[in-house]
Amino acid sequence: MKMRGRSVITYSVYSPTNVTTMLRPRRQDGQSILQEGFSIDPSVEFSEYTDLYGNPCQRAILPVGQVTITTEVQAQVNVTKPIPNPVPGYVLVGNLPDEVMHFILPSRYCQSDLPEINKLAMEIAGNFVPGYDQVEEIRKWIHQNIKYQYGVTDATTTALDILRNRIGVCRDFTHLAIALCRNLCIPARMTVGYLDKLQEMDLHAWFEVYIGGNWYAFDAVQEHTEGYRIEIAHGRDAADVAMVTQYGNATLDSLHVEVELLEAEPVS
């Protein structure tokens, strides 16, 4: 399926501000990048690097005034990877690849070692078969018990906050899911990008877990994990995958996101 994503981010900059951005798509299995664009208006010099997780990143100094960052991508993508039958099982910690180990550790927004997180994880999934069954029960519980609403959480909100307040957006749903999975020693990471099936279009966050020797996507915002996605970045939590990180005096004015499928969906 050919898919297009576009984001336009506008800032008011009050003093020259260093930024790092994570807005270009990953090149990986399941998505072939056909065309992409990245621009800053007014034009400034920028550099690029790849972070610890293989995410493409950009660095620039934004000038004083209104600055617009525009990115666009067209990609050939697969539908969200279906869960095979039989479902993938739990991988013992001793058998995890080295590069997966840090995805079972607590992180800034996903305090998987806290007693409240453990209590909820056991209530939701303690009686289910380790692996896929536990993850899907966690995903369903969050979808059914956490209210989706803009404007009630911010950049400081953690998984524990969501557990207690039961309200948030995709970022928050994902942090809670990751914390619960890691508490059960199931590696989990945060993924951000474009999704075609959203009622309110925005850059989206979901979680991936390592089960059965592979990474699988789960989306607690959706009733069922489905749709086409363009992945921009993944990491331990939102601290690793922020679209823009600024080091200076600038205010976000607006974010406009467009997503469309450029071909008709196949008839099942």
UniProtKB/TrEMBL annotation:
State a single Pfam family of this protein. Answer: Transglut_core
Task: Identify the residues that the record assigns to the Transglutaminase-like domain, covering every copy.
Answer: 162-222
The highest taxon in the source lineage is Bacteria
Q: Which InterPro entries match?
A: Papain-like_cys_pep_sf, Transglutaminase-like
Q: What name goes with this protein?
A: Transglutaminase family protein
Q: Which organism's genome codes for this protein?
A: Dyadobacter frigoris
